[in-house]
Amino acid sequence: MSEFKCANCEMCGREVAAELTCSIILSDENKQEKACWCVCKDCMDNFNENIRDYYKAIINDKVKK
């Protein structure tokens, strides 16, 4: 399997060295999907905050149902 390299940041769009950042999304009890984004160092803090808020909203919505 070849290593994935990021050419630009998916948050700001700049063509800079970016790291592949992955999180796991649980689709159901038996299946896991991995979602990944290329994010530069300048955007990493903002990305981490946004992704936490995104997952928190999904979890809160599922608890209400």
In short:
With 65 residues, this protein is an alpha+beta fold. It contains one helix and two strands; from the N terminus they run ββα. The protein is 37% helix and 29% strand.
Protein model, in words:
The protein starts with 18 loop residues before the first strand and ends with a helix. The protein has one domain. The chain is α+β, with helices and mostly antiparallel strands and 65 residues long. 37% of the residues lie in helices and 29% in strands. The chain contains 1 helix and 2 strands. 8% of the residues are buried. It has one helix spanning 41-64; strands at 19-28, 31-39.
Please work out how many helical segments DSSP would assign: 1
Low-confidence spans: pLDDT under 50, at least 5 residues? none
Helix-strand string: EEH
Q: Tell me the helix content.
A: 25-40%
Total number of strands: 2
Any idea what the shape is? flat
- Residue-averaged pLDDT: 80
Report the C-alpha radius of gyration, rounded. 14 Å
Largest pleated sheet? 2 strands, antiparallel
Class computed from helices, strands and strand pairing: alpha+beta
User: Strand order of the main beta sheet, please?
Assistant: 1-2
Strand content: 25-35%
Q: Can you tell me the number of structural domains?
A: 1
How far apart are the termini? 40 Å
